[in-house]
Write a structure and sequence with these properties.
The protein contains 14 helices and 12 strands. With 358 residues, the protein is α/β, with parallel strands linked by helices. The chain folds into 2 domains: 16-78 and 89-140, Rossmann fold; 157-357, 3-Layer(aba) Sandwich (Rossmann fold). Strands 1, 2, 3, 4, 5 and 6 form a 6-stranded mixed β-sheet that branches. A 6-stranded parallel β-sheet has the order 9-8-7-10-11-12, sandwiched between helices. Helix 5 packs across helix 11.
Length: 358
């Protein structure tokens, strides 16, 4: 297994087509509406296995270049996530530029829904960071290409958290010889919807949980509910823990943090955890840390969405997410046998399925 090729985003940030070619994107839709203040980007990466499915994220990006970089990486990750999970879906993603706490309104999301509808089913959207079920209800008033709606598959966070939890157990089995998380120290970075469900799973099994988040009310809630220890945003990288679980934004595993992390497992719900997968994936392996490829371990959410698309039950979705344990174990075993970083093993598995379909 030596023919693994990893494609990175173009260094020419101003050449959109060059970035699309470099990352093999099919289509990018730039959306703007002066009346509602909507500014959004939809990226369709690959539809070989089926329509592109991926959530919409609302974030107050510093500039449009950062938003474009994020949506390109996230949509590519969705292609790999859907492929490695064995789903008949391609990869796509959308970002809305704005503050999710102050700039939401019905008109904005309905206008966004019209843009989604213009893609005629090539892209199916759902919730992601900064988006609520109510936001998706507004989008659904203008397009049927929405999943994760109330009364249907609903909030995917519990299924995402369950997949991360069982993936952690598979990592623990490989690293410690036992998949029990009782007494294991876990640093959870991010106490959003997924982070909170994950913390519950961990505390129910007897793990000792440390948590950080930019939003104080979320920290207070998990501390009171589960007895988690609150730590600072920067302090979390220096803790003496067994598992580091990034559950917020990406790129938290980088040159700086890798010098500070004392964990032996990295397994969390965030997307694009490695700032540069070719560089940091190799460093992680060389340091003896087991890294659970993010798009594989956090696939529970998209599995939940696929259950809605394919008219499956919630029990089916949880069972399918539980299979993340076996996939994680297979990737770790192949990584050790071939001395190849886990991210590269996962990429190859996902790419092989797509190539076979082609």
């Amino acid at each position: 297994m030596t023919d693994i090729e990893v494609k990175e985003i173009s260094k020419d940030e101003n050449n959109v087509l060059a970035q699309m070619v470099n990352m093999d994107h099919e289509q990018i839709l730039f959306c703007q509406d002066k009346a509602t203040g909507l500014k959004a980007i939809v990226a369709v990466h690959d539809t070989t296995l089926g329509p592109a499915l991926g959530g919409t994220r609302m974030w107050n990006y510093t500039n449009e270049v950062d938003a474009l970089t994020d949506v390109l990486r996230l949509s590519r990750g969705m292609t790999y996530k859907n492929s490695i999970s064995g789903l008949h879906l391609g990869g796509g993603k959308a970002v809305i530029i704005g503050d999710s706490r102050t700039q939401k309104n019905e008109a904005l999301f309905r206008r966004f829904g019209k843009f989604i509808d213009s893609l005629s089913g090539k892209y199916i959207t759902a919730e992601d960071v900064g988006i609520s079920p109510q936001d998706m209800v507004w989008v659904n008033q203008e397009t049927s290409h929405v999943v994760g709606l109330p009364g249907k598959s609903g909030d995917p966070s519990p299924v995402t958290a369950y997949g991360v939890y069982v993936g952690m157990k598979a990592c623990a089995k490989a690293q410690f010889g036992n998949d029990s998380l009782s007494g294991i120290k876990v640093a959870v970075q991010g106490a959003g919807h997924v982070g909170q469900y994950l913390i519950k799973y961990l505390k129910d099994e007897g793990a000792k949980v440390f948590v950080s988040d930019i939003y104080e009310p979320s920290l207070k809630e998990v501390s009171e509910k589960y007895g988690s220890t609150i730590v600072g945003l920067d302090e979390i990288y220096d803790l003496d823990v067994d598992i580091f679980a990034p559950c917020a934004l990406g790129a938290t595993v980088n040159d700086d943090t890798l010098k500070r992390l004392k964990c032996s497992i990295i397994a969390g719900a965030a997307n694009n955890q490695l700032q540069d997968e070719t560089i940091h994936g190799k460093i992680v392996m060389d340091k003896g840390i087991i890294y659970a490829p993010d798009y594989m371990i956090n696939a529970g959410g998209v599995i939940n969405c696929f259950a809605e698309v394919d008219e499956r039950t919630s029990a089916w979705a949880m069972d399918k997410a539980g299979q993340i344990y076996d996939t994680t174990a297979e990737i770790i075993n192949r990584s050790k046998a071939n001395n190849i970083p886990t991210y590269a093993i996962a990429n190859k598995m996902a790419e092989d399925r797509i190539e076979k379909a082609k």
